[in-house]
Amino acid sequence: MNYPWLDAYCLSLKGAQKDFKVEWGATRYLLHDKMFAMVGGDKTGKPIVSLKLAPENGEVLRATYEDIIPGYYMNKVHWNSVYLEGSVPDEVLQKMITESHDLIFKGLTKKQRALLE
After folding, report:
1. Neighbour tally for 57: CB within 10 Å
2. Strand partners for 27
3. At a CB cut-off of 8 Å and minimum separation 6, what does 114 contact?
4. 40-97 pLDDT, tens per residue?
5. 67 close to 81: Cβ distance less than 8 angstroms
6. β-pair type (47-52, 79-83)
7. Which domains does the chain have, with CATH numbers?
8. How many degrees, rounded to 5, is the angle at CA 84 between CA 83 and CA 87?
9. Which of 26, 31, 34, 101 is the least buried, fewest Cβ under 10 Å from its Cβ?
10. Helices marked H in the chain
11. How far apart are alpha carbons 67 and 72 in whole angstroms?
12. Its pTM surpasses 0.90
């Protein structure tokens, strides 16, 4: 994996929690049980991370980087997957993770957001 910092970065974001979904064979990063990132593998076992992005941002990133694809086993409009053995720059992946976290955070209720702040 080209991004050894990924786990620590996801967990450094406000309110982030981690679990492992056995039936999916995937590690999930959550805010109040709402997933903002999932690390697993594609059908060939290549490691990927799936992240929620604004549709227009996802389209631009997929057009720019061949290692970013529509969300694997996810909604292809809102989710994008990044091959972890690829060449997406660290700062781009960090921005994607942050955007995904922010989108989920904004979708929480006021009460849930207040608990995290």
Report:
1. 14
2. 20, 39
3. none
4. 999 899 999 999 999 999 999 999 999 999 998 888 999 999 999 999 999 999 999 9
5. no
6. antiparallel
7. 6-116 (3.90.1150.30)
8. 80
9. 34
10. 6-12, 55-64, 90-107, 110-116
11. 12
12. yes
